């Protein structure tokens, strides 16, 4: 009976994870990274500047520390196609869940407790779960954490040495790679605190691992400068804190973990709770409202893609920042955007100037004339709150040539 409940709980947990993560990509980062990855894959050279805009911003310096993840995203998109990227998103979710469960099980020796911990982590990071470099970084976090935990238990150096190739991949895939050094440092501090004597000797293996990973991280196109760019990475680190929390949470549950496995009532409650969670996910979507068949996004509709392709539009496009990435991926260099979603590259001054042009008529007309803008591509809120309220645009020859439920495109002959 107990084994049957365990099997049902495992199946229900996989259903919950699938409903959380088998979601079509919704972020703009995918298209930008796929475009950069395509350039790297085709030409073997990493862009050193922002490259895509038609303004002076094209020369802004770019540190593509996530170039390897960009190549991976390009290959996934080319291999699967837009409609099947949901499978890649979900597969990475299952890998993340499997690593989380394995680490927690290693620490608790409890199927039930480790399942609860892994599901809690998947729920905590779900708001960040999208097909982007950060998702690879979360997986690297769990791999490094698992290797450090294995060394702590068994004392075998191969686990610490295995952290080096992971650190190398991580440093070339996402700017969060210093998290690996923080994890190794935390284990070193823990070993020193636990040691009754020879505290430095107890911490030494982890400190050596930290040094070896730091050396591996230097194998990247930017050398030591990659650490500086990591400090400029905007937001998202709560997800890494949630993943790292698997270790203390599992250790805290260890005293009661065995009782959870022996209790049929606890496992029956777990199955019922997972069934309820699955029903809620089917009804309301995951933690950002996504379903396996639909997710809200600013991605271009097939109608817009076909329209632009059929008319072979060429020229400069003043666009909403959220639309720049896919504009680049679909139509660059025939169409060039004013901006894309890389706020850390463009800075507040340039980003503010573009946004002001979309809301202030004199600023828009000046921007258009200075850069010979031929098209406007904006989301409906920006059209309603800005473009529609500019009476002189029609006199300048601007006209709507395409509109759907997401965005509006205007052209000036």
Could you describe the 3D structure shown?
With 413 residues, the protein is of the alpha/beta class. The chain has two domains: 2-284, no CATH class; 302-411, no CATH class. It is built from 20 helices and five strands. It has helices at residues 2-21, 29-43, 67-80, 85-108, 111-125, 133-154, 157-161, 163-171, 178-194, 199-217, 225-231, 237-244, 246-262, 264-284, 302-311, 324-331, 343-357, 361-371, 380-385, 392-395, and strands at residues 315-319, 335-337, 373-379, 399-403, 407-411. The chain has a five-stranded mixed beta sheet.
Task: Summarize the structure in short.
The protein is α/β, with parallel strands linked by helices. The chain is built from 20 helices and 5 strands. The protein has a 5-stranded mixed sheet.
């Amino acid at each position: 009976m107990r084994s049957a409940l365990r099997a049902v709980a495992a199946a229900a947990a996989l259903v919950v994870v699938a409903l959380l993560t088998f979601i079509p990509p919704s972020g703009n980062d995918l298209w930008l990274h796929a475009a950069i990855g395509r350039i790297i894959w085709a030409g073997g050279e990493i862009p050193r500047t922002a490259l895509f805009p038609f303004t002076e911003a094209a020369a802004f310096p770019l540190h593509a520390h996530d170039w390897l993840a960009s190549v991976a995203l390009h290959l996934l998109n080319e291999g699967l196609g837009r409609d099947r990227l949901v499978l890649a998103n979900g597969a990475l979710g299952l890998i993340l869940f499997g690593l989380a469960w394995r680490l927690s099980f290693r620490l608790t020796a409890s199927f039930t407790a480790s399942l609860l911990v892994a599901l809690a982590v998947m729920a905590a990071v779900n708001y960040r779960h999208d097909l982007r470099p950060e998702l690879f970084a979360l997986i690297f976090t769990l791999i490094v954490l698992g290797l450090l935990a294995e060394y702590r238990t068994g004392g075998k150096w191969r686990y610490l040495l295995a952290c080096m190739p992971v650190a190398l991949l991580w440093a070339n895939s996402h700017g969060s790679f210093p998290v690996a050094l923080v994890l190794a440092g935390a284990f070193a501090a823990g070993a020193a605190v636990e040691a009754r004597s020879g505290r430095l000797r107890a911490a030494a293996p982890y400190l050596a691992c930290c040094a070896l990973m730091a050396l591996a991280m230097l194998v990247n196109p930017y050398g030591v400068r990659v650490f500086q760019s990591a400090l400029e990475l905007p937001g998202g680190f709560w997800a890494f804190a949630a993943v790292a929390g698997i270790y203390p949470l599992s250790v805290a549950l260890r005293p009661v973990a065995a009782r959870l496995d022996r209790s049929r009532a606890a496992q029956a409650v777990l199955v019922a709770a997972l069934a309820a969670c699955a029903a809620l996910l089917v009804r309301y979507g995951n933690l950002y409202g996504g379903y396996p068949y639909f997710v809200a996004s600013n991605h271009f509709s097939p109608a817009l893609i076909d329209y632009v392709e059929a008319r072979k539009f060429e020229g400069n496009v003043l666009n909403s920042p959220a639309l720049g990435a896919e504009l680049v991926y679909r139509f660059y260099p025939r169409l060039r955007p004013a901006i894309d979603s890389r706020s850390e590259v463009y800075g507040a001054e340039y980003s503010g100037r573009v946004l002001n042009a979309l809301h202030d008529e004199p600023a828009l007309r000046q921007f258009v004339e200075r850069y010979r803008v031929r098209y406007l591509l904006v989301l409906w809120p920006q059209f309603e709150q800005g473009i529609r309220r500019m009476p002189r645009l029609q006199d300048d020859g601007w006209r709507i040539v395409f509109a759907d439920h997401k965005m509006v495109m205007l052209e000036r002959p």
